[in-house]
């Protein structure tokens, strides 16, 4: 299991003098939590704006989480990273704590300071079961973060095919674009994700969509060094021109890339270089029909 960004707390060093209630919550010592909770507010933050509820949720201490919530601890205090206790539980993969927050009415779509919701975070971490739970409970898969990314963008970028498929099954829009007009297909093409590309195309991904600089999924495949894959993503056009860039194709349908922006090329200087990969075949017979949402197994 890949856990998320658990707080780094050194009780023998820099965090030696954190509040006693915070220490007890971090350690999951419910008896001490009860003792120290009687002395003041249960949701007072430490120097990093973490409340005892943040710490207990990050560690998966369900008994402490229950107690603090029953003592009226706030579910919506933000730590230094703009994370609520609920979002911290999601990031750390603490499913039992997530269940508790949901039962207590937590807002599933509240974002962190970068606009990422619980679905963005679980997509990034690759937590399929948590993603499934959140979707079942009604989390919004169409919420964009501060750079316009939907959870589907994140799942594709992190190469979590099972989560990509789950989001599509629940109705996530396959041709959704971010702030640069990039689609999930473009991200998959750049990373050479053959299986994900097949899945996206099965759900109706458009080959001819251009990003804000005029590049298509085919061009992203070339940028990533996947020339054979690019051949499978070609579109029937001889020239695409935008205000900032031009894509031209010669008689052999080779592509000349001009003015590749930094956020697209990511520093790559070999985007048109031939690679010795086997030819990618996107045969429709190998693709699964989009399953009915009602058949998705909820874990």
TrEMBL record:
Residues 270-286 have a biased composition (Basic and acidic residues). Residues 263-299 are annotated as: Disordered. ANK repeats lie at residues 48-80, 81-113, 114-146, 147-179, 180-212. InterPro entries: Ankyrin_rpt, Ankyrin_rpt-contain_sf. Keywords: ANK repeat, Repeat. Gene3D superfamilies: Ankyrin repeat-containing domain (1.25.40.20). It comes from the Eukaryota. PROSITE patterns: ANK_REP_REGION (PS50297), ANK_REPEAT (PS50088). This is Uncharacterized protein. The lineage of its organism: Eukaryota, Metazoa, Ecdysozoa, Arthropoda, Hexapoda.
């Amino acid at each position: 299991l890949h856990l998320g960004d658990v707080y780094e707390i050194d009780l023998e060093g820099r965090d030696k003098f954190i509040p006693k209630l915070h220490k007890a919550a971090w350690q999951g010592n419910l008896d001490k939590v009860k003792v120290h909770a009687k002395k003041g507010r249960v949701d007072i933050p430490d120097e990093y704006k973490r409340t005892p509820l943040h710490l207990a949720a990050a560690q998966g201490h369900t008994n402490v989480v229950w107690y603090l919530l029953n003592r009226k601890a706030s579910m919506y205090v933000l730590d230094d990273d703009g994370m609520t206790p609920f979002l911290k539980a999601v990031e750390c993969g603490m499913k039992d704590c997530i269940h508790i927050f949901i039962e207590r009415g937590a807002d599933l779509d509240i974002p962190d300071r970068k606009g990422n919701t619980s679905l963005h975070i679980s997509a990034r971490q690759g937590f399929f079961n948590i993603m499934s739970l959140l979707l079942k409970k009604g989390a919004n898969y169409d919420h964009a973060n501060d750079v316009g990314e939907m959870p589907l963008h994140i799942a594709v970028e992190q190469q979590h095919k099972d989560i990509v498929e789950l989001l599509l099954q629940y109705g996530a829009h396959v041709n959704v674009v971010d702030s640069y007009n990039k689609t999930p297909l473009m991200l998959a093409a750049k990373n050479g994700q053959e299986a994900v590309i097949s899945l996206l195309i099965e759900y109706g991904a458009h080959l001819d969509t251009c990003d804000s600089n005029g590049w298509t999924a085919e061009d992203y495949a070339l940028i990533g060094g996947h020339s054979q894959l690019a051949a499978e993503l070609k579109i029937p056009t001889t020239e695409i021109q935008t205000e900032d860039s031009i894509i031209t194709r010669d008689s052999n349908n080779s592509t000349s890339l001009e003015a590749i922006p930094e956020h697209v090329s990511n520093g790559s200087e070999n985007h048109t270089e031939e690679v010795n990969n086997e030819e990618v075949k996107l045969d429709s017979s190998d693709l699964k029909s989009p399953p009915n949402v009602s058949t998705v197994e909820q874990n």
